[in-house]
Amino acid sequence: SAAEKGGYDHFMLKEIAEQPRAVADTLLGRIGSDGLLTLDEMRLSDQELRDVSKIIVVACGTSYHAGLIAKYAIEHWARVPCEVELASEFRYRDPILNRDTLVIVISQSGETMDTLMAVRHAREQRSRVLAICNVNGSTIPRESDAVLYTHAGPEIAVASTKAFLTQLVACYLVALYIAQVRGVKFGDEITQILDRLAGMPAKVEEVLATMEPVRALARSLADERCVLFLGRHVGFPVALEGALKLKELAYMHAEGFAAGELKHGPIALIDRGLPVVVVVPSPSGQRVIHDKIVSNIQEIRARGARTIVIAEEGDTAVEPYADTLIRVPAVETLLQPLVAAVPLQVFACELATAKGHDVDQPRNLAKSVTVE
Ligand code: G6P
């Protein structure tokens, strides 16, 4: 009903709007008065976390994209080798799992069958399993050794939005906690990153306040058949997620690519007028990857692409090559997905609406896939 949707036309719009609150709720009570993390609720002892020699993140769909981003944070902050795998591939390939392997499964619903099977397989091999989950008491956290809940609140729309952002936050917290417990980072470094995380709800709010041009852009592209997404570093999984959202909601052919792979194939797809969304990393992060992606934008534009550029405020280098420029606030490099994913959600939602599709219940899809 309209009341349930809180005045929004669709649950998805409501859930997109709830993201600042959801992100704040995931952080709530997890940062102690000393500015450090307190995640004992997770039920993994410090010793267990110190003994971990490898992490494997396993998930499906949007949750898998959160996992891809988690890898960057886990390896950069906690310095533990990390792999990410689709749950449907994981157990059938006979993965190497030991007592000192930590398997992190990510699932909004906690009921996805492939992910649940991955939990069972990992535990049979005596690995520890940590679930990052949204639905309290669901099957996956019940069968795991440890759990960190995302506290996004109920997500009704089939296409995941606020659950995704909160999964990212939970992954950042786990990465930082491992860094803290293992002494890889000094307390003040952890505190500084946590401060920035605490500032993210306000940044997401800023993004939400500037979405009208993104909606107008989406409406103008309603007759397109195909959209490409490019990204680099954590912007690469964001590109994959942007493409997934467009497939799910607008039933359009959409692909995400690593920008560095452009010359190994995708550039052959560039045709006059083809919309290409590019997620640009912060120029204040690794300058070299920023500059390389700016060259990519130039290359595809020279071949006729219609460039839709998501770049941080103050990044003037992209201006000459962007047909449409979507600004997001400047944030810590690893945290950029929390702001960069939002315009892509709005974009897909508006395109689906323009095409007259059912935004909350896309054809052929289910909120939770409980069969293999
Ligand atoms: C379905 C949903 C997606 C979700 C995926 C994984 O495909 O439509 O939105 O990302 O399942 O679900 P989970 O509940 O395990 O995160």
UniProtKB/TrEMBL annotation:
Q: Which GO terms describe its biological process?
A: carbohydrate metabolic process; fructose 6-phosphate metabolic process; protein N-linked glycosylation; UDP-N-acetylglucosamine metabolic process
Task: Report if keyword Repeat is assigned.
Answer: yes
User: What highest taxon heads this organism's lineage?
Assistant: Bacteria
Localisation: Cytoplasm
Q: Where is the SIS domain?
A: 45-184, 217-362
- Its EC top class is transferase
**What reaction gets catalysed by this protein?**
D-fructose 6-phosphate + L-glutamine = D-glucosamine 6-phosphate + L-glutamate
Q: Which GO terms describe its molecular function?
A: carbohydrate derivative binding; glutamine-fructose-6-phosphate transaminase (isomerizing) activity
- The UniProt entry annotates the active site at 367 (for fru-6p isomerization activity)
**GO CC entries:** cytosol
Please provide the record's keywords in A-Z order: Aminotransferase, Cytoplasm, Glutamine amidotransferase, Repeat, Transferase
Its Enzyme Commission number(s) read: 2.6.1.16
Does the UniProt entry include the keyword Magnesium?
no
Known role: Catalyzes the first step in hexosamine metabolism, converting fructose-6P into glucosamine-6P using glutamine as a nitrogen source.
Complex formation: Homodimer.
Recorded protein name is Glutamine--fructose-6-phosphate aminotransferase [isomerizing]
Q: From which source organism is this entry?
A: Streptosporangium sandarakinum
Its gene is glmS
Q: Fragment boundaries within the full protein? A: 243 to 614 of 614
